[in-house]
Model the fold of this input.
Amino acid sequence: MTSEFILEVKGLKKYFQAGSSGWFSKNGKQVHAVDDIHLQLKHGEVIALVGESGCGKSTLALTLLGLEEATAGQILFNGQDVTHLADKEKKEMRRKIQMVFQDPYESLNPTQTIQEIVVEPLVVHGIGANETERLERTKKALEDSGLKPAETYLNRFPHQLSGGQRQRVVIASALALEPQLLVADEPVSMLDVSIRAEIINLLAELQKTRGISVIFITHDLGTVGFFADRVAVMYLGRIVEIGGMNDVLKNTKHPYSQALLSVIPVPNPRLRRKRIILQGETPNPVNLPSGCRFHPRCPIAEEKCKQQDPHLFNLNATHQAACLLLENYQ
Amino acid sequence: MKKLLYLLILCALVLSACGTMSAKPPAVLRIGWAQGPDSLNIGVAWLASAYTISELTYSSMYELKLDGTLAFDLGTDVKRSDDGLIYTFTIREGVKFHDGQTLTAKDVAFTYNLVKDHEDFPTLHSYTEHFVSVEAPDDKTVVITLDEAIPNIESKLVFLYILPEHIWKDHSAGDAAATFENLEMIGSGPFKMLEYKPNEFIRLGVNKDYYGGTASLDEVIFQIFSSNDALVQSLKTGQIDLITGVPNTSVELLKADSNIKVVSGSPLSPDLADIIFNIADPANCPTDDGGLCTGHPALRDKQVRQALAYATDKQKIIDIILLGMGETGVALVPSGLGEWFNSDIKDYAFNLDTANQMLDDAGYKDTDGDGVREMPDGSQPLIFRMNWPSSDTTAPRMAELLSETWGKVGVKLQMQGMESDALTAICCPVYDYDIMLWGWVADPDPNTLLIIPTTDQIPTGYNETGYSNPKYDELYEAQGRELDHAKRVEMVHEMQAIIHEDVPYIIPYYAFAIEAHRTDRFTGWLDNETKVGLEDPSALLALKPIE
Amino acid sequence: MNRWHLLQKKALWSLFTIAFVIVLNFFLFRVLPGDPARAGIKDPRLTPETIEALRTRFGLDKPVINCFKTINPLVLGACDVNPLETQFVIYVKNLFLGDLGVSYYYNRPVEDILKERLWNTILLIGLGQILAILIGMAYGIFAAWKARTVIDYGALITGLIAWSLPTFWLGIILLFWGSSHGFPISGKSTPGMSSYPLMMQIGDLAKHLFLPTVTYTIVYMAEYMLIMRSSLLDVLSEDYILTAKAKGLSVFQILKDHALKNGMLPLVTVIAINLGYTVGGVIQIESVFSWPGLGGALYEAVNRTDFPMLQGAFLLIAVSVVVANFIADLTYSYLDPRVQTG
Amino acid sequence: MNVQLTESSPAAPVQRVNYWKIVSRNRVALLGILMIAVAVIVALFAPLIARYDPKSSEGISSSDVYNPPSAKHWLGTDDVGKDIFTNFVYGTRVSLIVGFFASFISIVIGGIIGLMAGFYGGRVENFLMRFTDIMLVIPDLPLIVVIVALTKASLMNIIFVIGIFGWTTTARIVRSQTLAVKSRKFVLRAKAIGAGNWHIVIHHILPLVLPIMVVNAILVVSSAILSESTLAFIGLSDPTAISWGQMLNFAFSRGAMSVGAWWALVVPGFGIVWIVLALTLLGNGLEQILNPRLESHHLMPGRPSFQSEAEAAPVKTGKSTAPVLLDVQNLSVNYVSDGKVAQAVRNVSFQLHEGELIGLVGESGCGKTTLMMALTRLLPAAGEISNGHVIFHGKDLAALTDEELSNLRWSGISVVFQGAMNALNPVRTVGDQIEEAILKHIPHFPPKALSARVEELLDLVGISAEHKNHFPHQYSGGMRQRAIIAMALSCNPQVVIADEPTTALDVMIQAQILELLDELRKKLGLAVLFVTHDLGIVAEMCDSVLVMYGGVTAEYADVDTIYNAPRHPYTQELLKAFPDLTKPERRLTSIPGSPPKLDALPPGCRFAPRCPVAFERCSKEAPALHRLGENHLASCHLVEA
Done:
């Protein structure tokens, strides 16, 4: 452990070419999927990333894992620059950063058995001296993920499992490598409400017992409230507000965060909240608005918001927001 | 506006059609063909049908009679100089082309010179091979000067149809002659071209001014059918009156029809089917002309070839492939050529024991017991490649039969049909084959067939077998100079005997030409002749419609 | 990308394909075994002078391209030849002038022969395609609507059987039947018909056209029916059909206004993709029925080793297919708004 | 995708059994396999089956040519007097050999090109697919004919040339399948665990591309066989190998037609049809297995409604004094497939009053959507109303004729469907689709006013008039949902059924849509039945809530009661599982297990297996629906008074 942070992201950018580029046509437009992200994650810390679709949270995850090549900026893992690695080093790094995907129906190969799925990372990385040892590890990973007894699952196929069980398999296969950082991309959004809790609880438990750091991407803060330490709200490729869970939920400062949190339905008919409903839709990340990228939809935007692009202002030691109106908050 | 005009013309056409229809119907003979002429320009035409049409629309110095003899057509008299190098022809006077112009000796000389000067007239040009000059001192005299005395000038002139100079002179220079389509086809023959639709039909009208008598017919229409089946069916239903190339398989069917008569016999221009052996000697290979001479060594052994001749069941081939419509072949000159055919040759009678015995005696034994004989030195088995042009539908059937009987004498075949150009490419003078099934079309004069196996023709690729026999070459030269007809016939007979003895070819059969006509619309069919063919226009002139 | 862009792109692409076909067409005949020069000459009994004269006449005496005298067999030649004097450049130049060379067999310009035949083929394909599409579509729609009933299974089985029929064999069988039922069995018209009144000529043409068209229609109808059926089955299980039903539209209205156009999209694609394949069917039909079209020309040219004709027919067929494909693409973009404006 | 074809995996035996089971269940594929088996057996044992030696012409004379079928020659003789049955039997060999080897070449070439293009993408894909496009456009049969004609027609050559030109469709199919597989998350997951390209292709892409390649290969075999026979028919065939096409060629070119020898023409063709049909059937069957199509579509006639139980006393719900618009009494729905009956909804009753908004909640598979579809009889073809009434304006919708029902749909009850993209026809403009609904119910709507009306409707949902002539794909997700709402309102319905109208939308858009719905409801006085699984939305919008579980009413009450005093354990558990943003520190619990399968309902209470407070009676006896208050119903033994 050479660094205080397991992960440090500095000015990370990821742009995509807009539209298809064939032999006959080429256009210079770019999608600003991730645009200048700064983020630090301590060892054993859990951070939740929230935002609407298109805000760049999934791209950010893929870029962190090196599944997308960063356009600019730096990613430090344990203090070591992992932004652009050769294939071999990348492979080594992936052993330490693992990912759980959104759709358990999609992220398991239907032609593989559960055993093959969970043992695959071990084989790829040459972990375990022989078949038996790998099998032992596989079983352990499965049982740790709540699939007990492991033997009954080994020879089954994904389609023979329920959605929750499948997501457990995904988690088991990620944990088999004993990673230090886990990126979970909306791991429960495809599951029925009644079983979401068990997956979240499983992740929380594993995080605690193994002390791994977790980046939890979600659009539903309610589910992770109890186990995330910090929350980052993203809008159009940027983090607009970041802070401790309670800071962000109870003392929301950025107008976008305020709006976003206000419209998440709450199962309490007696609670009559003021909902801030933003009009229109998130602008196209190809043509970004000038100044603050939220200003065209911002209910409290001022003239200066059209010109000036705000950076994150410190609100307190752990709470920051990118809004010009908060510039002099303290 | 244009549309209106078109409509008016249409109406006029309909009216006129009705008008003519109410008059006495013209006597129209309909002939079915499976293949139309490739060109009306006889200079570049290849196909027999083009020659048939030319025969009907043009005159030439001589004509071919149904008995295979040649007689004067346009010519009335000929004088040969003592050295045999100068021929002076006198021609008919007052002959008119279809467009009314008079045909004179100038037209004749023009035609002969045109052909002589045009190497791109592939077939005709060879007939003027020895011509030095052709002149027309007056309107009825044609003088031909040769560089060598030849015995058969009649057969050279029979296909040189007289073209009208006034039309062709504009198309005589360079490429123009070969590209001229000649759709009007102005000639002086008994019929004139009325209408031609390529691949559909040719309509000929009778030439009332024809010097050789006028037909009772008004029109002859050659209808081109694209399949033999359609041809046969149309004859049966009466859509046509005559078909000249009856498929063998349909003979029985047509014979069963009381209104149809089937006539078969040796054709005037027979198609000769050959089994060709590559006997080109690698030691004398025409390498300068691309020769490879890869033929199987066993085939260069006369014993082997004779044994194969004994192992060839010609009668069965005729029975199965021609359904009996042919006679066994002997040597290069087919029986259809009449007196030129040597009927005294005793053919190799089919006998597998004799064949086996001959091969055993010659040392070709099956040493490894696989059913295939090996060379006497044991070097290679008697496995021969056999090829034929893939457009030929009878060849593969013949190959099957040969493979079967030859197999019984320990000879194996690797059979393969090939496109004719590919076949040409391996044939000669490359000699990169073992056995081919191919054929020739015979001229009325045996010369064109007899020249094939001469040594001189090895480098040209004309001699497909690579056969070389000084005695044969000598006889060929001699017959080509022999002006005494009887002596020439004798020499030709001897040459056939040599070829039959040496077996560079096996001639499996001489196929009959088969003609079928309806008897309910016209009389006067020359159906007691053993020969059939349209080459003699008199066959058509004799027809009379039945009222 | 808007529609105009798409059109440009497709057109450019079609041109590129045609260029490729031209090059392929030229070199194919010079690379493959078999000598075009020998093929044009046919008969080994010709004198060398005659062969030379013919070579010159068909332009075969010139080098194929710079540096190559011939390609098969490979004979290198001078590289400093005037490019305009090479066979390839002359070939391309002549193509642009509409000159496809002279048929070895007919001794006539290939373009003249093919021009007549192109129309015959278009007549046959056009009529056959239209009938096949109309009947196939109607039948397919009906079968899909009546899914899981006897009608549907019947359609499926007959469709699969018809689809499995070799075109030429179906042609032969129909020919066999037709020959005993008074149908003409070969060609495009009764010989000599052109001297009869127009109405009779048309009647005669129709009689000749009947069997080939029926053959063509049966074979392709089956395919279109199967595609239309399966594509409509997909469409009919789409949510917007349920929407339409919930709106209270009648079955007929839904089929007409919501299913037909959507269901046709895959059909148009298949028609476009299949055009190349369709031509194969035309060769078979035209050779069975001796229909004087392009396919027949190709077939005859193969049998007669008439290289310029073969080359010309192949080129014309390939170019027609490319053009037809282009038209089908345009049709698709017209039918599917997602392509026009997406 | 339920078919596994990998044979290397340790659990392969299980898969193979599965595979065979699946195939054998598909009658089309089975028939194809049987027909192929016959052909293969004939080919293998040709010398035993054939009655003569095909190469021998022993004893044949000219009288044997084209003999009709007889005891001596079962299928007659051909143009050289040979036995057609014998040739036919041997011809099977050539067809199968050419078909198999040629398609093998095609599949290998096409497979490699398709895999490479699909996997690498970019320039490689561009180049390969452009090349494929060109090859696809160039007519292949003429090309094959030309090439075979110019080379020689040996069996090897024919196989090779057919193989070389038959790969285009394979390449396209493999490419698109590779693309599809590549974009699936498990490939990304494999990358994320550090697997290399080769590993991914072998373990993740190929196993999923292979089944489609097999299907394609079968069709390629059949087209190779057709190509071979066509070539042979044209006269390009190997003379040493008898093939069906060759038999036809000889018969056709040697006069069988004029002689009337139908047997020489029919028999070889029958062979080709047999084998091609067999392959086509198998290919089609396998394709059906790979891409199972829905058993039904929306235009199939529905099953008639009937009453299976005696009339029960009407159940009254709701405290609203407003008149009842939709009165649903004891509604039961069955799904019938293969004679098996599954109860999807059983005896559900509720009353929807004017201006009321009822939320219908429950997990997936609890019968919410089935109930909703049954109301206007939009059930899939297998569904039937097996009991109960849906009374709307005094008419029982369950008993109306199709035509009467059509007239009531949309003008009386309209539906806002889930998944807005699919609910709009992609090839027609949005305006057009709205107009259509209006014209259906008001046929004489003045044409001039029509356009204005559509614009008015769009304006109502916040879409500007310029979008009227746009196609659905030009709309964003939120706009599409708005358009659907506009369409639902186009005929002034009194009842709107909204089926999860905001699922799959972002929260902000969801908020916009919900607000719009709420506004419109108040403005137009609509009664709404709102189907959702989001308890948050229900809490914020609804007046009353109907909680469904396993097709029955678990609990019905006004919204406050449901959230603050739920009586049914299911409702209670559901609430515990649902996150609440205002209480982030609250740990959620989940309900173990999953809702019952409709064809395997537990005896007794349907919730008993998952119920934390279930006791013995629950698994034996189904609880009745108990009335707990004026407006509160629950079906649980525990609430029994």
User: Anything to note?
Assistant: Residues 4 and 90 of chain A are 22 Å apart (CA to CA).
